[in-house]
Task: structure prediction
Amino acid sequence: MTVDTAAPPRESYHHGDLRHALVLAGVELAREGGPEAVVLREATRRVGVSPNAAYRHFADREALLAAVCDAAQAELAAAIDESYWAVREPDAAATARAHLRAVGTRYVAFALDNPGLFRTAFIASSDLERATSPERAGPSGLTPFQLVTAALDEFVASGIMPASRRPNAEFLAWSSVHGLAMLLIDGPLRALPRAAADAVTQQVIDMAEAGFTAP
Amino acid sequence: MTVDTAAPPRESYHHGDLRHALVLAGVELAREGGPEAVVLREATRRVGVSPNAAYRHFADREALLAAVCDAAQAELAAAIDESYWAVREPDAAATARAHLRAVGTRYVAFALDNPGLFRTAFIASSDLERATSPERAGPSGLTPFQLVTAALDEFVASGIMPASRRPNAEFLAWSSVHGLAMLLIDGPLRALPRAAADAVTQQVIDMAEAGFTAP
DNA sequence: ACAATCATGTTTACGGTGTAAACACTGTCA
DNA sequence: TGACAGTGTTTACACCGTAAACATGATTGT
Result:
C-alpha cells in the first residue's frame, strides 16, 4: 500500500503538478520584468526541473506565456472585483457612478502596482470572446469588461445617461482607462509621482463620466 | 516618411552611413513584426554587413531599438501633422473640434494601418520630455502631444470648454485614443472589422468631446 | 502478481541570438 | 610616408527555444 510519508515536498522523479508550478513561476517572472522576462528555461530552473520538462505541458514558450497571461488577467479581475462589490451607496445613480469609478480606479492602481503583470495581461492573444471567458473572471465570475458593461447599464437604468448614448460606451470607458494606464506605466507619463498619477486618474474618470452623462 | 538617402550602393569596405541604414532596416522589421522583430543580426543581414558592425553605432540591441522607436514616433507624428494642418473650418470653435478629431482619428488610423510600427513607437523608453522633443516631431516641428495640447487650448479660447476643466485635459484625450488603439490592434477588439473600428473611433471621440464641452 | 503501456521528466544536440575581443581595411593628417 | 582613428570582420562564448531519444515511475489488463 502506498505508505504516506506525508512529506509534502516530494523528492521524487515526478513533480506532481508541474504545469501549475510553471505558470506560477512564469507569473513571478512577469511580475518582475514583464512578458519578455517570461523565459521558459528560467521558469523550469526556478521549479527545479529540466528545461524540456515544460514541453510535456506546453506546446512552446508562447503557450506558457498565454497561460501566464490568463493568470495575470485573473489577478487583475480579482482586484477589480473586490473594489466593485465593496461599493455601498444610497441610490441607484450614486451606485452606478461609484461602480464605474471603482473599476477605473482599481484598474489603473493595479497597473501602477504591478506594471510587469499588467503588461503581460495584455499581450496580443485575446479577442472579445476571451474578455468574457470565465478563465479570466474574478471571484464573482465576471470579467472586468463585464463589470464595466454592468456599471454603464446602471447609468442608463438610473436615468443619468441617455439610452441613445449607451451603445459602445464601454469602449470609451475601457479605452480611456486602459490608455491612461499604458501612458502611466511605460508611456510619457511614466515619471509622474504616484499621487499625481492618482489625481490624473480621478480626473480622467470625471471627464469620462461627464461625457456619458452630458445632456 | 522613410526618405531614402539614395546613397550609391558602395561596394567598398566602408558602408558610408551604416547607422542610418540599420535604423531603416529596423523600422522595416518593426513594421512587419513589432518591436520583438527588431533583431540586430537580421538588420545587419539586410544591410549586408557583419553582425558586429552594428556595435560601432549602437551600444547594444536596446539602443538600436530606441532609435527605431524614435523613427516610428516621427512617422506617426508626420501622419498626424498632415491631418491636423489640413483642417479648414469657418469659425474657431469648429476648427478646434476638427483639430481634435483629426488628431484622434489619424492616431487610431495609423495604429490600424501600421500595428507593428505603432507598438514599436510605444515601448518603454519615453518620458514626457521626449514627448515634446523635436526628435519625434512631424514636419511642422510639433509632436502629437503638442498638437493635442494646442487643440484643447483652442477649445478654451473659442469658449466651448470651461477653463476650469482645461488642466490635464490632454491626458484624457490622449488616454482614450491611445487606449482605443491598443485595444483595437492587440487587445480584445482586435477582431473588429475596419469599418466598425472606424465607427467606434468616431464614437469615442464624440464622447470625449462631450466630456470636455459639457456645462 | 506481473508485464505492458502510458505519462512525465532527463539528456543530448542543434541552430539562432546578443555581444565581447582581437583583427583588418581605409581614409586622414602630421 | 607613416601613425592613427574610424569602421567593418572574424572568432568565440553564453544563453535561449526546441527536437529526438532515453529513463523512470504510475497505471492497468490479464
